Amino acid sequence: MAENREDEEPRERVERREELVNYLRKLLSCLRDTGRFLKIYWKIVFAIFWALFLLPFLLIYDSSEVRCAYVVLLMGGYWVTDCFPMAITSLIPVVMFPALGILSTADTCACYMNDTIMVFIGGLILAIAIEHSNLHLRIALGVMKTVGCSHARLLGGLCIVTTFVSMWVSNTAATAMMVPIIFAVLRELEQVSILNMIHIQGVLKLPYFLLMGDF
């Protein structure tokens, strides 16, 4: 009887070990599947989790300011993580503001088509048109032909062009217009192998001369 008991105890230990090993295998398999799921669908998971995480503040403090802050924080989280395309994120207030009673649909949509937005849209369309028609290449070659290819003269010529453009359009539109012009100049300089510090200097001084055009 004693020998049988001694034989049963090792069997029980082996069975427990096998059960533990099987449990650990299933747990690891479950963690792997969860990791794969989150790797593929993390954007949807974050979008739902972030909205639910901010929801208690909306339920506890029921005021228009808190509802507006909820929409702003919701958009901020979506914007930072890029879980939705920016175009979709930017249109969230069109749905959320009327639904939460912050603004009416007409007032919300009117904010998307004010004078400032139309200036930005017009400037960006103009920048795309300049790049599409290769006008930026002509401007770049004209600047290089007029001022020469030395570092100081070329940088000064680009700064003058940037200041002049910024006098008539917004800084954002002027930047969108000047970036392809500067890159066209850099490509021409690369072909003649005289590109050193002009790229860095031009990028650093571009905002300064954009602001100069506003005065």
From TrEMBL:
<keyword id="KW-1133">Transmembrane helix</keyword>
<keyword id="KW-0472">Membrane</keyword>
<comment type="similarity">
    <text>Belongs to the SLC13A/DASS transporter (TC 2.A.47) family. NADC subfamily.</text>
</comment>
<keyword id="KW-0812">Transmembrane</keyword>
<dbReference type="InterPro" id="IPR001898">
    <property type="entry name" value="SLC13A/DASS"/>
</dbReference>
<feature type="transmembrane region" description="Helical">
    <location>
        <begin position="68"/>
        <end position="97"/>
    </location>
</feature>
<dbReference type="GO" id="GO:0015141">
    <property type="term" value="F:succinate transmembrane transporter activity"/>
</dbReference>
<feature type="transmembrane region" description="Helical">
    <location>
        <begin position="158"/>
        <end position="186"/>
    </location>
</feature>
<protein>
    <submittedName>
        <fullName>Protein i m not dead yet-like protein</fullName>
    </submittedName>
</protein>
<dbReference type="Pfam" id="PF00939">
    <property type="entry name" value="Na_sulph_symp"/>
</dbReference>
<feature type="transmembrane region" description="Helical">
    <location>
        <begin position="40"/>
        <end position="61"/>
    </location>
</feature>
<feature type="transmembrane region" description="Helical">
    <location>
        <begin position="117"/>
        <end position="137"/>
    </location>
</feature>
<dbReference type="GO" id="GO:0015137">
    <property type="term" value="F:citrate transmembrane transporter activity"/>
</dbReference>
<dbReference type="GO" id="GO:0005886">
    <property type="term" value="C:plasma membrane"/>
</dbReference>
